[in-house]
User: What shape does this take?
Amino acid sequence: MKFTRTSLPSAASSLALTVLSLGLFSTQPLRAAEPAASANEGTQILKWKDGKKAAFMLGFDDSAPSQLQNVVPELEKRKIIGNFYLVTGNGLYAALKRRWEAAAKSPYVVVANHTFTHKGVNNAEEMEPELAKCNEVLDALHPERKQPHLLGFGKPGGVPWKVTPEEQRVALEKHHLVDRPPFAGPPINYKSAAETIAVVDAAIAKGEMRQLVFHGVGGDWLVTPVEWFTALLDKLEAVKDQVWVTDVVSWHQYVTERSSAEIKTLKADKDSISLELTCKADPALYDLPLTLSTKVPADWKNCIVTQGANSITVAVHEGAVQYDELPGGGTILLKRAE
Ligand SMILES: [Zn+2]
Assistant: This one.
């Protein structure tokens, strides 16, 4: 990116600077990466939900019992989302089935597929039931969900996984599974609370997504001490205005939708702006609203944002309004309000 602060057009605001930095991470040139030519064309898709600087994910593998004991209550207390990569076909899970069923009712416990047995696979044929049978159990935890829907997937470690990347890609797509991105975690990769917390600062510094994966917390195996874990949660709470802590499916949906999203200004005058937001992702699976920021005329103080039957009033901040809307969800209407 060759722009510097001084070479920006004079109309550039801090918003435009944000947008330029967004361009660095886009796989495709978004229209949003261009400085706004006028108030009518000033809508940006923000890099992360709610305009946060970075995204962060917490993963917990293997249905380790210490997670029920030491992780779930802390996440609930602090309203922080965790991804639980469950192995649903072994004796360990069977023994704690009721407790996982109860935990899965929490909005802060997002269940994901870590295969049915965690024994690994020797070929693509063996992968099929490992994915399908785990999904069956996960779906039974959430009978209210519409089908199809996406679920997260974490490949089991330390066991054979003899399939090609293409065989895995096809199978994951068939079962509507989202492969989690590369990760690291304590105590293997990070040897102290401070090293673990530094991953959050790195996410903010780079404006990127980072992910930490845990096994045992305060017990079981590959144990992270409880104090490290709570120190990390303290940190995430302290930076909650800057970091979007989310689940793997929402992260994937946001990034996928954003990468092919387009905004058209249909009409704009001194009292209203109408826009159309579209993206190329399948709306049956990709239904997460994106966060937009639209520049509005200088004399607007508040703005009513309407899409379909949904309407909210948002305050104008530094000449722009920020709001969430669904790609392909119909015309977005912004109206001046007092
Ligand atoms: Zn595992």
Remarks:
- Residues 124-141 form the longest helix (18 residues).
